[in-house]
Structure formats: C-alpha cells, structure tokens
UniProtKB/TrEMBL annotation:
NCBIfam families reported for this sequence: para_beta_helix
Official protein name in the record: Cell surface protein
PANTHER family reported for this sequence: F-BOX ONLY PROTEIN (PTHR22990), F-BOX ONLY PROTEIN 10 (PTHR22990:SF15)
UniProt KW keywords: Repeat, Ubl conjugation pathway
Signal peptide as annotated in the record: none
Domain Carbohydrate-binding/sugar hydrolysis: 61-192, 207-311, 364-526, 564-727, 733-846
Pathway: Protein modification; protein ubiquitination
Keyword Repeat on entry: yes
Gene3D superfamilies per UniProt: Single-stranded right-handed beta-helix, Pectin lyase-like
UniProt source species: Methanosarcina vacuolata Z-761
Length: 867
C-alpha cells in the first residue's frame, strides 16, 4: 500500500513538471457575467462563460445570486467584480452536486459566497496549482475538497462555516492553506494520506474537531494557527508522523487527541528570534491553554522573559513533548483612530482585532467607523476612549458597512464591548451586536440604534434626541444572543423598530439597567431559560418585554410604559418570576397567555386598559402583593385555573378591580379592591374560592354572574352601592362575610338559585340587607341582619329556606343552636330583639314571616331578651 502511494506521488510531481514546461503564453480575454438586466454583460450564467472561455481567460462576475453547478475544465480565473463574497453568491442548483467542480490545472476562484451543496462548495479532482482565495463557503457538506493527488494548490483567506468538513485533502501534497477561518463544522481541516502540506495562520474555532491528521499524512507543517474552542479536540492525530507543529495557539478543553500510537512528530522548532503567536519575542513551541483560563505547563515560570516557559510540556500528559512551550504576554492596549488626533496602531477596529491576543484591550478613539466587525479573540475588550473618561456622548460611532451582516459578530468568550455608539441600518436577522454561542461576555454602556444618523449633525453635541425609528417588519435587532450563556448586558440604550434585545436559546444571562424604546419588541426572550432581567426601562415599544416558551427567568425592578400592545407578555412560558416592577400607560401592562406556574409579586400596573391579565389556560400562577391602579380592569383572570391571588390591591378601575371570567378553581385571598365600578367580578366561573378579601367604595363590591359552585368566605364588602350582587348564579356559598353600610343592598340575589348564605353579618345597609328577586331554593341561615329593612322578596322565590334544621352548635350571636337568622335593627326593634325566648335555647319562640315564600321558623334570639 505504501509503495502504491509513493508511485502516485511521483506521478503527481511529473504532471506538475510537464505543466510548467508546456504553459502557453496566449493573451488572456476578460469575459463578464451578470444575471441582472441592469448590468449588461457577455453572459447571464457563469457556466456559459466557462464554456466560451479559452485557457488563460478571466471571467468577471457582477454582484448577484447565481444558482448553478459549475464545471471548470480549462485553466481560467473566475473572480467577483466587487471582490466581496457577501454580494456575489453562488448557490447549488442541484444540491447533490458540487457548486464548483474543477477538472483542470491552474484554476482561480476568488471573492464568492458559495453554499448549498450536499457534496462540496469547491471540489478539485486531481489537479494542481489552483488558487482558491477570499471566498465564503457555508452550508455545504464540505467547504473545499482537494481530491486524490490534488497538489500544489493555494487556499487562502477563505471563510468556511456550517459544513461537515471545512477543508478536506485526500492524498494531496504541497498544498498551502493559509489565513483561512473555519468555524462551526464537524471537522475544521481534515488531511487523509496527505503529506508535505503547509497549514499556516488559519483560525479554526467552534468546530467539533479542529484539525484531523490521519493515515499517511506525514511531513506536514502546522504553524501560526489559532485552534480554539473546538468541542471534541483541537488537533486529532491518528497514525501520522514527521509533522512539524509549532507556533500555534491551542485553547480547547482537549487540545490534542491521539487515537492510535503515532510516529514521531515535532512540537517545536529551534528557538529563533521573531514574534510568536502569543506576542513573545521568540519562535519555539506552541501556546497551550484551556477555555477556563488555565495555561500549560501549569505553574511554570519564564525567568529570562523570553516568552518561553522554562519547563517542557508533556502534551495532554502523553509522551509527546513541546520543549519550548510559549508563554502568553500580559494584556496590551491596542489603539484605533481613523480621524484627527493621536496616531494609533490601526485605523480600523477589525484590523486591531486581527492583531490582538486573548486579554488585550482595543481602545477606540472618537470617529465614525464604517465596518462589520468579527470578534473571535477571547477575553478581548473593545472600549471607546471617551467612555474611559466617563463621557457618554456617543462620539465613537460604528456604522454597519453592510446591512446584511451584524455590526459586531462575537464568537469568542469573555469579550467586552463598552461605550460605543452602534448604528445601522441592519436587516433581519442581522444585529448591532450578535453574541453567538459564547459565554462571559460583557456588553455595557453602549448606544444602539437601527438607523443612520449623519455624524456631522448634532450627535457630537451630546443630544441624541434626533434618533428616530425605521419602519418595516424586516428590521434587524439591536443586541442578539444565540445559544449564549452567562453574559452581561448592562446600561445599554437601544432603539429601533425591529427587536431591541433578543435572546434565543440562551440561558443564565443578566440584562441590567438597560433602556429600550421605540421597537416592535423591547426585550424578546425566546426559548431561553434562567435569565435575569433587572432594572431595565422599556418605553414606547409595541411589546415591552416578551417571554415566549421560556422558563426560570426573573424580571425584577423594571419600568415599562407606553406599550401599544403589552408591557410584559408571557406566552407558553412557565416558572418565571415577575417582581417589583412598574408598568403604566400600556394597552395591557402584564399579560400571560398559556403560561403557568409563574410568580408575579409586588408589581404596580396602572393607567392601562388591563393591568394584569391571565388568559388561555394560564394556570397555577401566584399573584402576590401586586397593585393595580387606575386601569379599566385591574386584574383579569380568564379561562384559567388554579391561580392564587394573595394580598393584591386593585383601586380606581373604571370597569372592575379584579375579574375572574370563565375560570375555575382559582383562589383570591386577602386582596383589597376599592373605588372601582365593580371591585371583584365573577362571570361564568365555577369552583373558585374567595376569602378574606375587602371590596369597598364601589358600585358593586362583588358581582357574581352566571357562576356556580364558588365559595365566598370571610370577605368584607362594605361601603358600596351593592355589597354582594348575584345574578343568574347557583350553588354558590357565601359564608362568614361582612356586608355593611352599602347604599342599597348588602346582598342581592337575582334569578339565582340553590345558593347557601350562612354566618354572614349584614348591617346598616340603606335599602335592604338582603334582596331576593326570583331566586328560589336558596338556603339562608345563621346570618346576622341589622338594617332598617332586613329582607325583601320580590317575584317567585319558592323553595328558599330562611333556616336550617335545629342543630346543636354555636350560632352567630353566641347561642347554642343553629337554626334561622338574627333579625335586628340599629334601633333595637327588630324581630329577634323584641320576641321572647322563654326556654333559653337561643331561638325565638315565634317564627318570623316575611311573606308566604319567606318564613324563618327558627329565628335567632337576642340573649338580652328574657320575657
């Protein structure tokens, strides 16, 4: 097998030599391609241009999206006119085929976005000296595939992501892979039976495996590569030898994995003067670290300060040794300035990042920086020079160069962005700041707006009031977190008509003291758990804070106002805590839809159509000590069950203080509702329990309509027009309540049957203590009535009983028997106060007859009456 592979390599070298000897010198033609009618060109498809080209020609492709599978069988160059892969995109027309298939030597492909193939983005079939540069390859099975004997090719400055394999080389030699960025693939770079290749200055991060060397992949050089945050391993070596691996930065949980005893590989070069990848003054071995901040060899020293540890490193505890492991330098400050003022290290933020090391600080001077910035260096700080002096004027502006990309795209842990004024426009799904799959980042004291403001206007005066909102539903987001955890968003000001702050599949982040306004969604927490939202100000959004399919989040001490739709909105979200917040002047201040087991505590909702609204099976929530003030409806529970409302206050509602509508098995305990049209309203509801609530100074204290099997006990419904008002309601129980000093009736039953009224105190009501209208079969006993007019029966009330069976038990006036009711008046001339109880059993000797349908056969006696 080894003999055959050796013969193949010799044949490859012969082909290379023949190619060099026979290369022609014919003049090259330029052929143009455009599929946009506004851009005239020679051809409308790239494949047609390839068919018409002669060897050595150059095909220039104008911006656009081309859906093709392109086969190249002659040595030509294909380049994008703009050189920008974001505006010249080639997508696979047939996803089973390669996007570009190369069947010739000396082919160049430069400046394209290439995607959508279940095979490869670019596939080279046994050919040499091809140049693949400055392309973006994404969502392909393989980004670039150099097939057997594809040798002496150059792959440079390509960005590859979301592929099974970023770059694959099988049986190839003398290929040069440099300055490529590969992320979010299963394998970053994979070499199989491929020797004498150079992998130099590539960034390979966030893959499952970073670099994979297997088979007879011998004699390769890996130098200057940054291999970080790959989940399974940074470098996997399987049976290979004689590779030179030096001046690389490895920062993975497992940096090197050995699946088989390998031959001898060299892990450092001879110590040589020159800046190494960790910033030190000498080349030697590699920089070894792990994402938790540990560097290796642990506890080693660098006494002579040459940037190389004084101890060798047994790599991952194996027999493989780096004799000259690199030591990271102390963090440095890198300056950026593209305008007047101090001369800086760089004129662009991206250039500074490209030259930074983990832990460095990039200090950005005032100016307008038109960039889309990728942040891939861990523990990097980007801060405005103004903010370091406490200046919050927003004079350090970063404007999106392309609306199709994030302004800041962060794929490294521990990044800080502070004190910048970040402006769009950016289109959905792009963002001002996008954290993707990262931890421990700190985004603080920034201004973000999805709008462009002329920097020569009043922005530098410190007056940012001119920032207005873009319209349209395709606007991007201000700050976006995807699969990101343990990050801090602190004291940012965000505006724009899209989504100001979006968390998606992100957990355990903290959003602290941010100000969000003028958006469709102020803060949207989507499928994200255990985040903390503390002290944020959300104003004039369509929806202030929106939690969807999210649990375990805490929203505390927020201020939400001016929301067109809702201030705080929970949808399909469970076990969240909303506390100590104020929500005012919203259509709905707080709303829960199909959201259960949440805790709402000590919030104030005011001046809204609905203060606090639970509906559509929002079950088993707890509402404690909330205040609903000056709303149409203060607290509204609809089509929901198992909720417990305790210690809440509902005041000054124009419709109702607390409403329970089409709901079952809810509990209202110790709530106070006053100065509402209806203080507590129960409609089409059953099996609810209301106890120890106070309802006062309203037209209706408690209104129960079309409701059954509810239990109302120990409530105080005094000083209203009506205390209890039951309409078309049956099988409810009113027990132990106070209904006093109402301007009309203490208890009113209209068309309400089979209810039980017992142990209630009904006194000093102006018209009647108890008024029954067409309400039969009710059981009314052991109540204390003391009104000028205690009872009035109108219409048919057949079957209503004003007493129960005489039963030994303490009654409401302290007697020893339960029987009927106590009928008194404030003047002391009521029936129970003037009729004798000769046998002293606490029951008057005579029955109390209201009318033929209302007779109390066992009226309770006043213990002071002895005659």
């Amino acid at each position: 097998m080894m003999y055959v592979k050796g013969i193949l390599k010799i044949i490859c070298l012969i082909i290379l030599a023949l190619h060099l000897m026979t290369a022609g010198s014919a003049a090259a033609n330029v052929i143009s391609v455009s599929n946009n009618t506004g851009q005239p060109a020679d051809f409308t498809t790239i494949q047609a241009a390839v068919a018409a080209a002669n060897p050595g020609d150059e095909i220039v492709v104008k911006p656009g999206i081309y859906e093709e599978n392109i086969v190249i069988n002659k040595n030509i160059s294909i380049v994008s006119e703009s050189g920008n892969f974001s505006d010249t995109v080639v997508r696979a027309a047939d996803v089973s085929q390669d996007v570009f298939s190369i069947w010739a030597n000396d082919v160049s492909i430069k400046g394209f976005g290439i995607s959508g193939s279940n095979s490869a983005g670019i596939h080279v079939f046994e050919f040499i000296e091809c140049h693949i540069e400055n392309n973006e390859l994404f969502n392909n099975s393989c980004g670039i595939d150099l097939y057997i004997l594809s040798s002496s090719n150059t792959l440079e400055n390509n960005e590859i992501s979301n592929c099974l394999t970023g770059i694959s080389i099988g049986g190839g030699m003398y290929n040069n892979l440099s300055n490529n960025s590969i992320s979010n693939c299963s394998n970053g770079i994979s070499l199989f039976d491929s020797s004498i290749n150079v992998l130099e200055n590539n960034t390979i991060s966030k893959n499952i495996e970073g670099i994979y060397l297997t088979g007879e992949s011998n004699g390769n050089t890996l130098a200057g590569n940054t291999v970080t945050l790959n989940t399974k391993s940074g470098l996997n070596i399987y049976g290979t030898s004689n590779n030179l691996i030096y001046n690389n930065c490895f920062n993975n949980t497992v940096n090197v994995e050995f699946e088989e005893v390998s031959g001898t590989n060299t892990w450092n070069t001879t110590k040589t003067e020159g800046t190494n990848i960790a910033g030190g003054p000498y080349l030697g071995g590699n920089f070894w670290a792990k994402p938790d901040g540990t560097t290796y060899p642990e506890k080693a020293r660098d006494i002579d300060l040459d940037g190389i540890f004084d101890s060798q490193y047994n790599i991952e505890g194996t027999q493989f040794i780096d004799y000259l492991p690199l030591k990271g330098l102390e963090p440095v400050v890198i300056t950026v300035n593209n305008s007047t003022g101090p001369v800086a290290d760089f004129t662009s933020i991206q250039a500074a990042i490209d030259n930074a090391l983990p832990g460095d600080t990039i200090l950005i001077f005032p100016g307008v920086y038109e960039e889309n910035v990728d942040v891939y260096v861990t523990n990097l700080t980007l801060t405005s020079q103004s903010s370091s002096y406490g200046d919050t004027s927003g004079d350090t502006i970063v404007k999106a160069a392309s609306s199709l990309d994030d302004v800041f795209y962060i794929i490294a842990d521990g990044v800080t962005i502070r004190g910048l004024n970040i402006i769009g426009p950016v289109d959905y799904p792009s963002s001002g700041i996008h954290l993707n799959g990262v931890k421990y980042c700190n985004i603080e004291s920034n201004q973000l707006s999805n709008n462009y403001i002329d920097p020569t206007s009043n922005l530098f005066s410190g007056n940012n009031s001119s920032i207005s909102n873009n319209s349209g539903s395709d606007t991007g987001s201000g700050i976006r977190l995807d699969s990101a955890s343990n990050n801090l968003l602190n004291n940012n000001t965000v505006s724009g008509s899209g989504i100001s702050v979006l968390l998606r599949d992100s957990a355990e982040n903290t959003l602290l003291n941010n100000s969000v306004s003028g958006s469709n969604y102020g803060i949207w927490v989507d499928s994200s758990n255990n985040n903390t939202l503390e002290g944020n100000i959300l104003s004039n959004n369509k929806i202030g804070a929106y939690l969807k399919v999210s649990s375990g989040n805490v929203l505390n001490n927020s201020k939400v106002s001016g929301s067109i739709n809702s201030g705080i909105n929970l949808w399909d979200s469970v076990e969240n805590t909303l506390s100590n917040s104020t929500a005012s002047n919203n259509s709905v201040s707080i709303v829960l839809r199909n959201s259960s087991a949440n805790l709402l505590s000590n919030n104030t909702v005011s001046d809204s159509n609905y203060g606090l609204w639970l509906y559509s099976s929002s079950n088993d929530n707890k509402l404690n000590d909330n205040r609903a003030l000056n709303n149409q409806i203060g607290i509204y529970v609809k089509t929901s069950s198992g909720n417990v409302l305790t210690g809440n206050t509902a005041l000054d509602s124009t419709v109702s203080g607390i409403s329970v509508w089409e709901a079952t098995k809810n509990a209202l305990i110790n709530n106070e509702a006053s100065n509402n049209y209806v203080s507590i309203y129960l409609q089409n509801s059953s099996e609810n329990a209301f106890s120890n609530n106070s309802a006062s100074d309203s037209n209706y204290g408690m209104w129960i309509a079309y409701s059954s099997n509810n239990n109302l006990s120990e409530n105080d419904v005094s000083n209203n027009k009506f205390g209890f008002y039951l309409k078309n309601s049956s099988d409810n129980r009113l027990s132990g309540n106070q209904a006093n000093s109402n301007s009309r009736h203490g208890i009113y039953l209209g068309s309400s049957r089979s209810n039980i009224l017992d142990s209630n105190r009904v006194t000093s009501n102006s018209e009647y203590g108890l008024f029954l209208l067409d309400s039969g079969s009710n059981s009314i006993y052991n109540n204390y009535f003391s009104n000028v007019n205690n009872i009035y029966l109108q219409g048919s009330n057949a079957g209503t009983r004003l007493n129960t069976t005489l039963t030994p038990a303490k009654n409401i006036v302290g007697g020893t028997y339960l029987g009927g009711n106590f009928w008194g008046t404030p003047k002391g001339d009521g029936f129970s106060q003037t009729h004798a109880d000769k046998n002293g059993d606490g029951i008057c000797d005579a029955a109390y007859t209201v009318n033929t349908e209302g007779i109390d056969y066992l009226p309770l006696a006043d213990s002071r009456v002895t005659i």
